Amino acid sequence: MKNDRRKFIRQAGLAGLAGTGSSLCGLFPGAAAAEGRASVPTEALQAAAAPAGGELSVIGLYGPWAASFNDRKIPTLSFRRPEWSDLEAWRKSASRRLAERLAIPDLGGLPPVTVKRKFTHDGLYMEELSWQLPYGRPTDALLLKPADAKAPLPGILALHDHGGNKFFGTGKITRTDQARHPMMVSHQDQYYGGRAWANEIARRGYVVLVSDAFPFASRRVMLQDVPERIRTGLSDPNPEDPKAIASYNKWAAEHETVMAKSLFCAGTTWPGVFVAEDRKALDILAARQDVIPGRLGCAGLSGGGMRTVFLAGTDPRIRCAIPVGFMSTWKDFLLHKSFTHTWMTYVPLLPNELDFPEILGLHVPRATLVLNDREDALYTMPEMTEADRILKEVYRKAGAADRYRCSFYPGPHKFDAEMQKEAFDWFDRWLKS
After folding, report:
1. In sequence order, which ranges of 73-132 are alpha helices (DSSP H)?
2. Dihedral sign, CA of 87, 88, 89, 93?
3. Domain residues for 261?
4. pLDDT for the residue numbered 54
5. Is 308:323 a contact under the CB 8 Å cutoff?
6. C-alpha dihedral over 275, 393, 334, 344, to 10 degrees?
7. pLDDT by residue (tens digit) across 41-69?
8. Are 57 and 332 a contacting pair, CB within 8 Å?
9. From CA 150, how far away is CA 50, in angstroms rounded?
């Protein structure tokens, strides 16, 4: 009986370990020597846990074990596998499985769009828009295009970043006739070379739509809407109080765990919600009379880059995609960098079937530009390079090598003026010609 009980405990422990995802970080390494088994010297355990290069795993001694599930294996639905030779047959199978894993919620048809204000600023015509989805408060958005535009133009969905700042959304990458919030001045200086990149690309001859993502800005979780016991004594901040905004952002970061658990319990995923809401914004952009049908692109930095990966991989209307500062492998997240990333990134079970860059690979043969920073602390250089190798192989096998490019820039996590120039030129090449 005692041996049966010990066997049950070991099996239950392994089952729990396999199902906990990033909560593995809370486990302790000493469990390996339990139940009177001979202990292994700590130095030997650490050596076994260290990935190539001697670095330790973010989940300690469990890293190599977890990585072994897919290490040196090509995922089952990868186009790189020899059994996949027909591009459309592969895309159909892989897209169906990706949709299943994402569990994208149905948001219904095209929502009515309210135009709250029309104005011109700095050579651009702008509209402040809003629409109501089946849940939450209305989504606020900003539309921009050249003020002198007479004919329809290509359309771009500009996706704002995460940045650890859920109080703001569209204001991270735009400027209007209203004074910028001081926090947005510093944000654009740090990440965008002091530029509002949505304005800059609109000026090049595009209709650009920027909407607040779930749960940012107009779509953020309001403290007044959650039980008092989890507000930690906070109330919704005054927009003029940077300290109160910082406190809210700290609370919202911690609340991500609650949101992710709740979405899983609802039978969906955070990336699935992103895809659903970004598709709705794309519906609105594509339906406009001033947008050329079939000439649609999307781009974004960081969290916006992640959303670009998922949107381009799931929606064939995107003709040109440019993720910035968000391209690596599941292995990189698993062993090194999951702690630097939001819960918004992860899709249970998908790594068995597609590596992270292969989500974007579903966009093949349509044009893709990946922009990376060499000193980006959110990823390791070897795995960013591996992601590039994977995408090159996918595009080459599909006969579309000329439609993929990856560039590495010096410096930390950013989308500066030099990177923006390459991105805008890429859009011009594939959306204007």
Report:
1. 87-102
2. positive
3. 113-432
4. 57
5. yes
6. -10
7. 334 333 333 444 557 899 999 999 999 99
8. no
9. 60
Strands (E), 353-421: 367-373, 404-409
Whether 16 is covered by a domain: the verdict is: no
Side chain identity at residue 72, one-letter code: R
- Is the previous residue joined to 215 through a cis bond, with omega within 30 degrees of 0? yes
Position 153, amino acid: L
| DSSP-derived pairing of the beta strands 367-373 and 318-324 | parallel
In a domain, residue 417? The reply is yes
Using alpha carbons, list the distances in angstroms from residue 32 to 26, 37, 47. Answer: 15, 8, 15
Cα dist from 327 to 213, 305, 385, 394, whole Å: 20, 8, 9, 15
Tokens describing residue 54: 């001697």
Q: How far is CA 84 from CA 356, 386, 397, in A?
A: 18, 21, 10
Q: How far apart are CA 78 and CA 276, in angstroms?
A: 24
CATH, residue 268: 3.40.50.1820
Per-residue model confidence as pLDDT tens digits over 252-292: 999 999 999 999 999 999 999 999 999 999 999 999 999 99
What tokens does 70 get? 């897919």
